[in-house]
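User: Hey, quick favor. My workstation is busy. Could you predict this chain's structure for me?
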Amino acid sequence: MADKTPQKVYDLNTKQRKLSARYFRDADLGGRSPSELEAAGKLMAENNPKQVSRMLRRMDDSGQQAFLGPDMDPAVRRNLYDGWKADRLVSAEDAAASARKYKDVDANGRRVLDDVLTDPDARSAWIRTLGDDAVQADDAVASARKYGDLDSTKRSQFRELLADDDLRDSWVSVTADREITTADIEITIGRVETNSQHSVSNFKIGRNANPEDAAHPPHDPDSIVVEMKLEEGDEFWRVYERKSQTSNPDENLAGGFVARRSTLQSAETPEQVLDRLALLRSEWQEYNYVGKVELTDEFVENNQIRVQVSTTRRQASDVSDEVRPGGGTQYLLQDDLQPTDQGVNWEPVDDLGDFVD
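Assistant: No problem, here it is.
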């Protein structure tokens, strides 16, 4: 059999040459072209040949071809190798798939990927992202471009979401959306952090999360909806119409549209609360009172409570000229929480005007 060890290996000193030649043969590169063999030899000569050999051996034929091909920038190849070497969660196939997707994008896209693959803090997360079959190359580029516009703290939090195998696909998809801005991403990351005691299950674009037949869809269509599952007891606050002169004044207290206390208390007037939460007095309720619901740890443990966190959509009444701009943070309880449920406590709190005063 002809010796396929490239000249780069023979140019090394005697000890390095013996090591590199041995590991080069161990890498199972029998189907590679001369230029691909030369690329493998160069990578071995510049790094630990045993590790390079192990990485290449774990790639299939098409993976080796993509990774070692003459159209792959050697600097990118080194970055992919460094990412694999530094993080045990990065597989050789992740590196190979990253090489394929890198080649699939245009020059501008490659420059964006160069930035994240060169950064040691970001490299592993983005190699795993590019290695994910569910992530499209163009989406990865669009997402990475916005990632680069964030500050260092937000970038770190962004990477944590990329590192989650269950969230990566939906996170890349929503952050890549052309209508989503870096400000939207910062807001979403803040919402995830605010609810860190719970588990995020998915991300959606508002227009896709809105019910198709809703007369007044709740989510801002060009924003990110966070879908999460409660992991411990919590409390939420609700604005509703209290009918003090009736036998059941708090019949409107229980409901799915709720908020955090801070959203209500930071408002200066009742009208500002209604504007933030896009609550139409002329169409739905009078919205004159504040209540809250408390969920115990035991109830949450025994029941799967799902919640959507989103930005309220601008709402315009169909029966008057009332318009509410929205833009506040709302929580939508996806499961009915009845006052009769053990571990669920709905409680009236105060008149809305007094609450925000």
